[in-house]
Amino acid sequence: MSSYTLHRGDALTVLKSLPDESVDAVITDPPYNSGGRTSSERTARTARAKYTSGDARHDLANFPGENRDQRSYRAWLTELLTEAYRASTEHAVVMVFSDWRQDPTTSDALQMAGWTWSGTIPWIKPSSRPRKGGPKQDSEFILWGVKGTLDNTRDVYLPGHYIASQPRKDRVHITQKPVEVMQQLVQVCPPGGTVLDPFAGSGSTGIAALKEGRNFVGVELSDHYAGIAEQRLRSALSRDDFALAGPEA
C-alpha cells in the first residue's frame, strides 16, 4: 500500500536530512526563474505575473524563489540535485521541468550534480495563446537523467512528448501540472518505490505517485501551498483506499 510524507520547509535543508539511497525517482518542477537573465526580468514581476495571463479568472497565491539570475539558479539547482543524487538509488531517474530560457542552465546543473543527462521531453500546451509576429511559446520541457545506467529490464515504455493543457477546473496552483501527465512520468519509478519532489507545490506529483502505486516524499516551502497539497494528498489516499502514513512537520 502506498504512503506519503510531506515536509514543510526549505528543499535543500530537507534533502540534506534524507538517508542515502532512500528514493527511487526524482520528479520536480522547481521555481525556475523564467526570464531571469536581467535584474528587471527577475525582480519586476511576481510569479503570478510571469505565469498567468493578464485576464486570468483566478486569484492564485504567489510562490517564493523567483528572483535568481541564471548563475545563482544554476548554483542553487546543482546543490539541490546533488543532494537528490545522494538520496537516490542506483538506476534512479530524475526529471526536472524547465522553460526554454533555463533549459541550458538546467542541463548544466543536472550533469554537475552527477546525473547522466539522457534527454529532453517537450510538454506541449494546446491552450496557449498565439504570438503575433512569430511562433507561440506553447511548450515547457522536462530534462531527464539517470544515476548510473537506466534499468532496461523493466517493461516500461513512455512517450517522448506530452500534449496536455494545464488544469482549468479546480485549479489551485499557478503552475499546476496535469495529473494525467504526471501519472505517466512517475512510472519511471519501480512499483512500490518512492518518488521525491523537492518542490511539491499543490501536490500533483504526489497524487500521481499514489495513484500509480508508488510512495511519495514531498517538500514545500510555502505554507499556503503545503496546506493545499496536504488536503489533496489525503483526499487521494481516501479515494483510493491507500494506507495513510501521514504528514511530517
- CATH topology (level 3) name: Rossmann fold
Shape: globular
Largest sheet: 8 strands, mixed
Going across the biggest sheet, name each strand in turn.
1-8-7-2-3-5-4-6
Topology:
Layout: E1 4-8, H1 11-17, E2 23-28, H2 39-43, H3 47-51, H4 70-87, E3 88-98, H5 103-112, E4 116-124, E5 139-146, E6 162-163, H6 179-185, E7 194-197, H7 204-211, E8 215-220, H8 223-240
Parallel strand pairs: 1-8, 2-3, 2-7, 4-6, 7-8
Antiparallel strand pairs: 3-5, 4-5
InterPro entries: DNA_methylase_N4/N6, DNA_methylase_N6_adenine_CS, RM_Methyltransferase, SAM-dependent_MTases_sf
Biased composition (Basic and acidic residues): 55-64
GO molecular function: DNA binding; N-methyltransferase activity; site-specific DNA-methyltransferase (adenine-specific) activity
What does it look like?
This protein has one domain: 3-Layer(aba) Sandwich (Rossmann fold), CATH 3.40.50.150. It has eight helices and eight strands. The protein has an eight-stranded mixed beta sheet with strand order 1-8-7-2-3-5-4-6, sandwiched between helices.
Question: What key phrases describe this protein's structure?
Answer:
249 residues; 8-stranded mixed sheet; single chain; 8 helices; alpha/beta; RM_Methyltransferase; 31% helix; globular; site-specific DNA-methyltransferase (adenine-specific) activity; Rossmann fold; SAM-dependent_MTases_sf
Please sum up the structure shown.
This protein has helices at 11-17, 39-43, 47-51, 70-87, 103-112, 179-185, 204-211, 223-240, and strands at 4-8, 23-28, 88-98, 116-124, 139-146, 162-163, 194-197, 215-220. It is of the alpha/beta class and 249 residues long. The longest helix is centred in the first third of the chain and has 18 residues, at 70-87.
